[in-house]
Amino acid sequence: xxxxxxxxxxxxxxSLSTSKPxxxxxxxxxxxxKSQSGVSFLKSGSAAxxxxxxxxxxxxxAKAEAGRAWRxxxxxxxxxRVTFLDGNLDENGMLTDQRFYQHTLFVNGNWMNFVCTSDxxxxxxxxxxxxxxxxxRPSLVGVLTVIDHSEHVVQSGPNKGNVIKNQRRLYVMxxxxxxxxxxxxxxxxxxAGCTFDIARTGEKEPNVGNQFDFVEKHESLAxxxxxxxxxxxxxxxxxxxxxxxxxxxxxxxxxxxxxxxGGPGYEKGVGSKIADQL
Length: 278
Fold this sequence. Notes:
Structural class: alpha+beta
Oligomer: single chain
Distance between the termini: 21 Å
């Protein structure tokens, strides 16, 4: 769902009356300002305050997201080489990725991801789930850390034009990819240290890729660091609690992406856990 956070400062309207000769006082009438009812983009009163609050919340969100690790993504037809830094198998032979429920919304021309609050805050329904539209249903996702070996040219800022590579990325995957990687992990004794050439072969395929060609498996994270000329600390899995921003229900409402709760018949806590709904 595309949201528009447009606001406009409402200027005072001044009536401009035409001066008439003194000899004709009966013709000197004060003109009434024309109605602005047809100008729908102007905001005033509570609507203006809500727009300001939303813009302030957006600014805070931009600050919160700044400096966080990027997500690994592929365009249709693109291929990149990556090395997984985690993804071992547990005692039951299951992939040890971290999982959570995520909403993906189209906001102001960009796709944005938000953690579903239902499993975290049981006192109220998730505001995005409460929208109850086609975009509000969350998806179960898993997350791992990869080193993206492709080159990236910095497009703006003081480092514009610089080429960087071997950067850690969040590898956030949906159920189909989780199942695929589970099989690959079983074959390789875990994913940590494994290097793959990953390709995306269609627009409808996952944006983290759907074809995985095994290249090699490193003995340790230290050996990865030595081969790439990186510090060992730069080859550790990312801290997911820090890199994936969690917004509270109130923050989601202030951002304008969630529905506020309340009204007749509303009780906090009536929503069931999202895990029970899917």
